[in-house]
Amino acid sequence: MVATKAPPRSLRRRVRALHRRLEDHYGPAQKKRIGPLDELMLTILSQNTNDTNRDRAYESLRARFPDWDAVRVAPRGEVEKAIKSAGLWKQKARSLQEALAAVYDEQGDLDLSHLEERTDHEVIDYLTSFRGVGLKTAACVLCFAMGRSYMPVDTHVHRVARRLGLIAERATADHAHELLNRDSSVPPELRFSFHIQLIRHGRAVCRAGRPACDTCALGGLCPRIGI
After folding, report:
1. Which domains occur in the chain, in start order?
2. By three-state DSSP, how is residue 133 classified?
3. Which terminus has fewer CB within 10 Å in the chain: N or C?
4. What pLDDT, on a 0 to 100 scale, did the predictor assign at position 2?
5. Number of other CB atoms surrounding residue 40 within 10 Å
6. 133 vs 5, 12, 91, 186, 192, CA distance in Å?
7. How many CB atoms sit inside 10 A of residue 124's CB?
8. In whole angstroms, how far apart are CA 89 and each of 79, 136, 161, 172, 178?
9. d(CA 52, CA 15)
């Protein structure tokens, strides 16, 4: 088990300080809330691409098909054409259709409202049983569609959290989900907002290749681990 770098109380204080600094710099976190099935489809499309390509593919898919059931039964090639802008369209079309088929086979419809009765871990176990749905995708459904206090960890969050010393430098993305969603780490009420702020910061400043440390709003709070 990889340990975090700071004691629990110190870590929570640091997270709150970092969040305040990021919110002052980037503004409040916002994201339009959509239903669990919509969020699941959108997040599958988001894998290994940027938001612009993801949104273009999602809009194309919704324009081509009247509803998710039509996507479920459509010829695979038609789905691939609709989502080509998202990249990896063959893989993603298969994941979309197999997830829809799995929900339909179990429920008799494409309604995920039953997830509201399940715990966070039960929701994650259910969603990650679908091909192409990993922990990050399931966490996005929990956080963004269901309003749960669960923080998704994408590549930006993973990278920035390591550099800030919030998780161990060698912690995997899956382990980062475990660490950052502990009450001793990121306070539950901050998980949605802190996720958004770390993504903003990872894209704008704390980039993978050349982080712009000289313009960073977190000066004095960041130990620059691994940079």
Report:
1. 8-30+151-215 (1.10.1670.10), 36-145 (1.10.340.30)
2. coil
3. N
4. 41
5. 26
6. 30, 30, 11, 24, 20
7. 21
8. 8, 19, 30, 26, 30
9. 29
Structure letter (DSSP) for residue 66 = S
Residues contacting residue 92 through CB under 8 Å, at least 6 positions apart: 44, 45, 47, 83, 86, 132
Nearest to 132 by CA among 181, 82, 90: 90
- The pTM for the full model equals 0.91
Q: 195 and 158 in contact (C-beta within 8 Å)?
A: no
Task: In whole angstroms, give the CA distance from residue 110 to residue 102.
Answer: 9
Number of Cβ within 10 Å of residue 56's Cβ equals 17
Cα separation of the two ends of the chain: 24
Residues annotated catalytic, as ranges: 136
DSSP 150: -
pLDDT, tens digit only, all 227 positions of the chain: 344 455 567 899 999 999 999 999 999 998 889 999 999 999 999 999 999 999 999 999 999 999 999 999 999 999 999 999 999 999 999 999 999 999 999 999 999 999 999 999 999 999 999 999 999 999 999 999 999 999 999 999 999 999 999 999 999 999 999 999 998 899 999 999 999 999 999 999 999 989 999 999 999 999 999 88
pLDDT at 8: 65
> What separation in angstroms does the CA of 90 have from each of 78, 129, 152, 208?
11, 19, 25, 28
Residues found in the chain? 227
